[in-house]
Amino acid sequence: MSVTSPSSEVSKNPSAGARTSRHLSVLFFLALLAGVIYVGISIYSDVSGHAMSPLHWTVVATLAAALLIALGFEFVNGFHDTANAVATVIYTHSLSPTVAVILSGLCNFLGVLLSSGAVAFGVVALLPIDLVLHGHPSTGFAMVFALLLSAIAWNLLTWWKGIPASSSHTLIGSMIGVGIANAMINHGSLNGVNWGQAIKIGYSLLFSPFIGFVFAGLMLLALRLMVRNKALYEAPRDGMPPPMWIRSLLIASSSGVAFAHGSNDGQKGMGLIMMILVSLIPATYALDRYSTQHDLPAFASSAYEVSHIINGDTLPDLSQPADQILREYLRNHHETPDVVPALGVLTGRIHAQIAALESLESLSDDQVNDIRDDMYITSEAIRMMSGSDTFKAQFEGHSGEALNGLKAHIDSTIKFIPLWVKVVTALALGLGTVVGWKRVVHTVGEKIGKSRMTYAQGLSAQTVAMATIGAADILGLPVSTTHVLSSGVAGTMAANRSGLQWGTLRNLALTWVLTLPATILLAGGMFWLFLQL
Question: 302, 267, 249: which is closest to 463 by C-alpha?
Fold first, then answer.
């Protein structure tokens, strides 16, 4: 059976195709230019809003390079994951490629803007505590460039081969690689890696493809029982759009996948950008000085209450400084008798720092770094302790509520994402889709099953992908749009007894297996190399 390219309607009219290509190119570069100007104006406005000396040119150059690479990762992400959102509507001729990618970009944009941010900081929590806290600038630079460059390299390689690889998998592998390298260099062990968070995220990446496979197949079977219209189960005709009601369903589900992708995958890029901003311009981005301004008295009161619950009115005799005890606890997860009293001391210190302020604007650069470190350590220690049975027994009822209340105050102060970060992340995803959708569309539409994908199969795969990604976003877990949608298509092929192209599935599985070890080695090696420079 001959297969027509998704863009066959354009290719039949060379002049129309050329005009469409020129228009897309103009729109692409205008959007790119607008994004660059918007980023520059936003950062200038944020920085000039604080009483600080002008940024040194080396900081500006490093910041520009880091942001360019971070947005480059989201751009390449668009090659893979966002292209999956438009694969079905383009392949079934429900929308032209131009309209499909623009609609997908808009839905991604809305998904990013309306996202909670939980996934962004959940991914960042993979990094060792030493790399997240304020430290030597060279270490921060090595971390950022190593994990971003390794992730981009692997994404480009798999895209070039036309394999729908997972950008989530790639980024997480890079973060683990940097964490392992940092732990081995500084501690001679693997204690610095947040294995608990890695395992939690690993489960979501492991099981989401199986969820896509099973539930997409079940949805197809359910459609066969409930909807008897034969048109739904036909393969796309060359150049012919499906009936309007089928077309509407496919467009709606595709838009839902794009929105869910933006709300989940887009957050990974936002987390990276915030990590860069906090590392390079902590005076501006380490604390959310505006949204927490009116909450300062309540924040200080919450910190005092927790400190008093733990230690009363006396300071405990600790073997080490409180922050050092909690750093060790976060690094090796070993509970010692000093851990809880150290938490009380640190919350007391946060109370003293906050209570003495009329405004966060009055903090110096060094004070910003110190208080953010204390807050981050406290928040992560509370999060980790909440999984301990001993800790749960010690903090029940009002005590537990007070502790969670303090964590909420801290997280709202240090885990925030400015609007412009969301906007440029969404823009990078959308532009990546415009450039790189064709290779992935061809694989999803024609290389997973032995027969051409029907409208019902595309609808089932997209609906399950949308629901799975949306649920993961609510839970604050990253999942792979690529794996969920591709496995969903495979599940519908199996349920339809259409046959599977095992060569393609073997390549997908091999890429899925190799992504983590490849990016771990690549990112770890780059991190070590950059530290030597």
Answer: 249
